Amino acid sequence: MDSKLLEQLKDLAFDIRVKTIREIACFGSGHIGGSMSIVELLTYLYYAEMDVDAKAPKKDDRDRLAVSKGHSGPAVYATLATKGFFPESWLETLNQGGTSLPSHCDMTKTPGVDFTGGSLGQGFSAAVGIALGQRLKGYKSRTFSIVGDGEAQEGQIYEAAEAAGSWKLGNLFAFLDLNGQQLDGYTKDIIPSGDVKDRWESFGWDVQVCENGNDIAQIAEAMEKAKAVADKPHMIILKTVKSYGYIPGEGVKANHSMPISKEQAEQAIEELRKREGR
Ligand SMILES: Cc1ncc(C[n+]2csc(CCOP(=O)(O)OP(=O)(O)O)c2C)c(N)n1
């Protein structure tokens, strides 16, 4: 990736991260861990990869994103707001009465959201169906999906994976947010993820691994390799850090959903600025 674009994307990711922290602080608590771990991915997708238009969010032949770990809504909303899908002031209403930004992504409420998440496993199945639909319609567009490593304990994920592999859905790009944590602890202590590369390959998928899934350059490189493979669905495994960039949550077992006051948010942003030299 061109170094100027990379620097722009890093700046955008920082801005989206700050907006996500403040957004959650407006409600007083929220899914900070699984939101923070995918900020670089969302930034890359919306600013360097996906063909979407904030002025025509329902255009039929657009690229689509099904965020299967739908509790990452706060990071999705901050990204969509910066892209102009809705006013940034909406971020202050996260999860509050009458909001268009519920805790979990909802395609009936939020411009730019392509699938309603919340019940883990379903978004990825929908992504397989959407990608198949795009192919049947003869569209060049692609479907993207983000799956959690805890979510991947759902059997539904593998039914969909098997179908996509056998249908050779080359227009489907899935990302596994391998942050090693789920709601109530570490995946290794609950159901270990095992050799995920081997597993997805066994379903007929093209698999790339990013050793640092919070590194935009690595995500871009994996996408370039994936795009060179036309006849298989793509899984990009991102080894991420849950709560990455919300420093008070990094390395904390109970960082799935955390209470965050406005003061705590500003302190955490200041701490991050110092760490990143911004
Ligand atoms: C079918 C279903 N079962 C349980 C839940 C409750 N739940 C919400 S998030 C979550 C943990 C998900 O872990 P992971 O996919 O690893 O997400 P991340 O750690 O990236 O936030 C659980 C169990 C749910 N939303 N849906």
Give structural notes.
The chain is an alpha/beta fold and 278 residues long. The protein has one domain (3-276): Thiamin diphosphate (ThDP)-binding fold, Pyr/PP domains (Rossmann fold). It has 10 helices and 9 strands. The protein has helices at 3-27, 32-36, 39-49, 73-83, 122-136, 155-166, 187-190, 196-202, 216-227, 262-276, and strands at residues 29-30, 64-67, 143-148, 172-178, 181-182, 185-186, 206-210, 234-239, 258-259. The chain has a 5-stranded parallel sheet, sandwiched between helices. β3 (143-148), α6 and β4 form a beta-alpha-beta unit.
Main features:
278 residues, alpha/beta, Rossmann fold, five-stranded parallel β-sheet, two-stranded antiparallel sheet, 42% helix, binds thiamine diphosphate
